[in-house]
């Protein structure tokens, strides 16, 4: 390996593992950093080592794909430098700031592949901060990582393929699923069919989950509006409305979410150019077909560059690594081209399927309009939809970063990762602008909370931590 080459991969999910595999195959020794204790990312999250559950139990229909990804990483370990349990909390030209077990350090890089994945896209509803309400991802993490359920009778609310998958996983694990309440309608799903047929295997799997839930007596309702939780300081039931009127379903826990949002803060801090993606209603870092970001030496792959799913993340990780190899002269471009072309074609087909999913499970278009003034949007800072609207009315602000400064929305522990989507939607609604016109919450270091003393001790020149 050229002595000046130090490729670093952030994220040990499907994208990061395939990127590492590709670099190792061509003689490089990348550093792979992940804040999780074990590799696998979100979909192939592994439980603590001493847990005994089989991969079949953990990953169900994904067990074979999980084994392929997880075992690849096992074989890579002697050939990479794997830094688990390590948060990358800041990035600047040529260097990452890390936090591992309370200690900060730095990691230089010559080339950086960001495979930072995604988190739940949160659209609050009345009562969402009540104990017993979890995001869909949180509900799944409890099951996958710790083998426990969030409640004994759980209702799942929101939209997206994960809604049905996680309900299925809960029911299979023995939990009682009170209902699945989807804001999308059957009409949305029928209209999406031609694009969903671009990936018939994935479509069949989604249909299997729905059919299985129905066959096991789980009530599935479409075209709903979540009205809120029922219960005094805890969840006793979920209220919702559909074309037939208002309803209530008893439960002691709720999992909710409206698809996913990309983790883009590191790309933002590095100065990568962003563009608004209409389909995903999100600002995403721009990259070329090979995963190169606008900043030289930075590559993007997987859900962190736009939600594409686990299989596409593997392809995109490999593709980004091929681009890095070509750019650094580690392999001749023509030799890599055949494989890169194949990956790009596969990703193109997935793009069509993703479009179908967005149509099948659309963002609820009236969410912001229906959000009452008392709805808590930012739970870290206790900012309501009414606070945001009042600030817009008083100041005429039209920009989300200005609104953050005025109201503290997105300024707390989550740094806007939880509330940013909803805050932008409310601002667009009450200022009468299209969503893209309100901008995006700028990424700030630290991207996740770290002890305040750490920022002062290691990097006096760094921006102040806002937590
Ligand atoms: C909670 C959740 C559950 C999901 N469950 C499923 C499922 O069951 N089935 C399915 O098909 N799809 C699921 N998805 C979607 C699926 O996980 C993704 O499509 C796929 O994992 C994308 O792979 P990736 O490598 O791009 O990212 P991920 O698998 O998300 O991996 C990203 C990795 O980057 C690490 N990371 C991110 N930021 C930092 C940082 N600053 N410092 C250090 N490490 C960092 C994370 O710890 C993570 O391990 C889920 C998504 C989420 C958010």
CATH architecture identity of the largest domain: 3-Layer(bba) Sandwich
Distance between the termini: 40 Å
* C-alpha geometry: globular
Small-molecule binders here are: flavin-adenine dinucleotide
Q: Report the total helices.
A: 15
- Please mark out the parts with pLDDT under 50 across 5 or more consecutive residues, or reply none: 459-467
Strand arrangement, largest sheet? Answer: 3-2-1-7-20
CATH class of the largest domain: Alpha Beta
The class by helix and strand makeup works out as: alpha/beta
The overall average pLDDT, rounded, is: 94
CATH topology of the largest domain: FAD/NAD(P)-binding domain
CATH-wise, what's the superfamily of the largest domain? FAD/NAD(P)-binding domain
The helix content, as a percent range, equals 25-40%
Total domain modules? 3
> What does the radius of gyration come to?
22 Å
Could you tell me the number of beta strands? 22
Proportion of strand residues: 15-25%
Biggest sheet architecture: 5 strands, parallel
What multimeric state do the chains show? single chain
Quick tags:
467 residues, 15 helices, FAD/NAD(P)-binding domain, five-stranded parallel β-sheet, Arc Repressor Mutant, subunit A, single chain, binds flavin-adenine dinucleotide, 37% helix, disordered C terminus, 22 strands
Q: If you had to describe this structure to a student in words, what would you say it looks like?
A:
With 467 residues, the chain is an alpha/beta fold. The protein has 3 domains: 7-119 and 261-331, FAD/NAD(P)-binding domain; 122-258, 3-Layer(bba) Sandwich (FAD/NAD(P)-binding domain); 367-438, Orthogonal Bundle (Arc Repressor Mutant, subunit A), CATH 1.10.10. The chain has 15 helices and 22 strands. The strands form 7 sheets. Strands 3-2-1-7-20 form a 5-stranded parallel sheet, with helices on one face. Strands 9-16-10-11-12 form a 5-stranded parallel sheet. A 3-stranded antiparallel sheet has the order 4-5-6. The longest helix has 28 residues, at 333-360. The chain is globular and about 65 Å long. The two termini are 40 Å apart. Mean pLDDT is 94; it is low at 459-467. The site of flavin-adenine dinucleotide has 36 residues, from α1, β4, β8, α4 and α5.
């Amino acid at each position: 390996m050229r002595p000046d080459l130090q490729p670093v991969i952030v994220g040990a999910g499907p994208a990061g593992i395939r990127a590492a595999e590709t670099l190792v195959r061509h003689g490089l020794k990348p550093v792979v950093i992940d804040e999780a204790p074990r590799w696998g990312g979100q979909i192939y999250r592994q439980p603590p080592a001493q847990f005994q559950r089989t991969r079949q139990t953990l990953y169900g229909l994904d067990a074979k794909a999980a084994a392929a990804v997880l075992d690849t990483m096992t074989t890579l370990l002697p050939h990479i430098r794997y830094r688990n349990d390590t948060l990358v909390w800041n990035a600047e030209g040529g260097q990452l700031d890390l936090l591992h077990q309370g200690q900060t350090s730095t990691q230089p890089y010559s080339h950086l592949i960001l495979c930072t994945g995604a988190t739940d896209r949160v659209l609050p509803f009345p009562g969402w901060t009540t104990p017993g309400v979890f995001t869909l991802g949180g509900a799944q993490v409890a099951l996958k990582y710790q083998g426990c359920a969030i409640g004994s009778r759980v209702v799942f609310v929101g939209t997206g393929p994960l809604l049905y998958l996680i309900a299925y996983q809960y029911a299979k694990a023995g939990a009682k699923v009170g209902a699945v309440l989807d804001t999308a309608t059957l009409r949305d799903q029928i209209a999406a069919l031609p694009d969903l047929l671009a990936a018939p295997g994935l479509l069949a799997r989604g249909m299997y989950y729905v059919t299985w839930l129905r066959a096991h007596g789980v009530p599935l309702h479409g075209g709903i509006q979540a009205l809120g939780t029922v219960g005094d300081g805890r969840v006793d039931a979920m209220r919702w409305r559909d074309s037939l009127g208002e309803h209530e379903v008893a439960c002691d826990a709720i999992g909710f979410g409206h698809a996913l949002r990309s983790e883009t803060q590191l790309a933002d801090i590095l100065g990568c150019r962003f563009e608004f993606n209409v389909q995903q209603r999100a600002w995403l870092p721009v990259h070329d077909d090979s995963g190169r970001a606008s900043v030289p030496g930075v590559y993007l792959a997987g859900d962190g560059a736009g939600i594409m799913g686990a299989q596409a993340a593997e392809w995109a990780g490999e593709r980004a690594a091929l681009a890095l190899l070509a750019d650094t002269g580690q392999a001749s471009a023509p030799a890599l081209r055949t494989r890169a072309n194949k990956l790009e074609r596969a990703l193109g087909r997935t793009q069509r399927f993703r479009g179908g999913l967005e149509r099948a499970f659309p963002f609820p278009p009236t969410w912001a309009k229906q959000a009452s003034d008392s709805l808590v949007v930012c739970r870290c800072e206790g900012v309501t939809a009414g606070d945001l609207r009042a600030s817009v009315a008083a100041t005429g602000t039209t920009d989300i970063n200005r609104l953050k400064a005025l109201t503290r929305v997105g300024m707390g522990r989550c740094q806007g990762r939880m509330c940013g989507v909803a805050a932008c939607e409310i601002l667009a609604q009450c200022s009468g602008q299209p969503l893209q016109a309100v901008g995006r919450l700028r990424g700030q270091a630290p991207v996740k909370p770290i002890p305040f003393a750490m920022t002062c001790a290691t990097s006096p020149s760094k921006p102040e931590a806002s937590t």
